[in-house]
User: What shape does this take?
Amino acid sequence: MGIIRNLVTNLTVIRRTSNQHIKIMSRRLHASRTDGVEKNVWVEFTQLAADYKAVNLGQGFPDFSPPKFVQEAFCNALNGGPLMHQYTRAFGHPPLVKSLAKFFSSIVGHEIDPFEDILVTVGAYQALFSAFQAVIEEGDEVIIVEPFFDCYQPMVKMAGGKAVYVPLRPKAEGGAVLSSGDWVLSPEELASKFTPRTKAIVINTPNNPLGKVYKTEELQMIADLCIKHDVLCISDEVYEWLTYDGAKHVKIASLPGMWERTITVGSAGKTFSATGWKVGWAISSAQIIKHMKIIHQNSIYHCATAAQEAVARGFEREYELFGSPESYFQQLPAMLQHKRKRLASCLESVGLRPVMPEGGYFMIADISSVKVDYKDQSSEGEPNDFRFVKWLTKEKGLATIPVSAFYSPEHSKEFDKYIRFCFVKEDSTLDAAEDILKKWSQGQ
Ligand code: IK2
Assistant: This one.
C-alpha cells in the first residue's frame, strides 16, 4: 500500500490537455542523454521524399534486388527446418562468424578467432553503438573526421563522451576539385586534436558522403597518432567493396600495431545490397569484443537467424570466387562505376559541380553556381544546402541529402554548398532524375 501511495503522490493524474499533450509524471520524464540529439536527417528527408513522391536519390539503399545467390540462400534458410526460425548463438550465428573469420583473416593479416574476435550485430549501426558504449567513459574525447556518417555524434554523446571534430578539406584552394581524393586531412590539425583525454578516433573509408578512399599513407599517419597517444580506432568500412578507377580499400587494422586497437565495422546490407536485412558486424581483438558482447547481450541479445545464415552462405560463395569476374564484390562496383560516371556527367550538364567519388555509392556536388528563388518561407533561416534540397524535392520532385548534415555545428557553414546524390539505383531511376535535372536547366 505504501509503495502505491508513494507512486500516486509522484504521479499527477494522467490527463489530456487542450493541446493533446499527456502529462504523466510531475517530474521530468526523460533522461538527458536524449537531449540535443533529436534531429535525424534520415527521418526528416526520407519523409519529405515520400510526401512529395520524389525520385529518390536521397537515402543510401539500392532500389534493385540483392543478387540471386543471397536471395536463394535466404529462402533456403527459411525452409531449412525449425532451428532456422529460433534463437541462434547470441554473439553471432556460428556459420556466419566462421565465414567472416575465414574471409577476413588473410585481408587483415591476422588469424581472426570466429568466436572471440567477432560480434554480429543488427546492422553496422548497432556495431557502432555497441563500440561506443563499450569503450567510452564519461568525459572521454572521441575524434570524428568530417564529413561523417551522422550517427557517430549522438552515439558518442549518449555514451558520455565528447566529440572533437577535424574536417577533410579540399586541397585545391579556389580551383576545381575533381575527386574525393583531393579532400585531405591536415596532419598538423589532426595531431592537435589528440589530448590525454582522447580515447578513440572514428574514420570511415570509403567515406559517406564524400566517397574518399583513404590511401595507405593517410591511414599510416592516423595509425601513428593512435599508437603514439594510445588511442583506439573505430573504422567504419561498410562500403569496403565499392572502389573505382583503381582506388584500393585498405583496412587500418592491417597496419602494424593496429589490430589490437581497431574496431572494424562492416555491413551485409551494403555488402550484398540488402540493407533491410540489418546484419552487420564488428571485428576486433577479443579484449575489446568481450566488452561489446556485454553491451549486446544486455540490449539486443540476438540477431535474426535466417538472415545471418544467408549472409554466411554469401560470404562462403565470395570466398570461393574472390578476385574472379563472377564475384559480386567485382560485379557490384563494375555496375556502379557506370552509374557514377553517368550521374557525374548529368550533374555537370546542368551546372552542378560533382566531386568524383573514389568509392562508396554517393556523390556530392557543389551547388554554389546555381541561383534559386526560394518561395518556400518555411525553410528560411535554415542552412543553404537544407533549403536547396527542400526546394529540389518539393518543386522539382528530386530528393537528395544536404551535406552539412554530415558536419559538426562548428564546421557545417563551411560546407553548406554541397548536396549528396545516391547512385546505387536502377537505370530507370537515374533516367527519371536526369529528366528532372535537364528540364530544370532548360528553365521548365
Ligand atoms: N556507416 C555508414 C558510413 C553508413 O553509410 C551506414 C548506412 N547509411 O545509409 C544511409 C545513408 O547514408 O543514406 C551505416 C554505417 C549503417 O549501416 P547498416 O545499415 O548496416 O546499419
User: Anything to note?
Assistant: The radius of gyration is 23 Å. Residues 59-60, 123-125, 149, 204, 208, 236, 238, 267, 269, 275, 280 surround IK2 (CB under 6 Å). Residues 1-19 have pLDDT under 50 and may be disordered. The chain is about 40% helix and 15% strand.
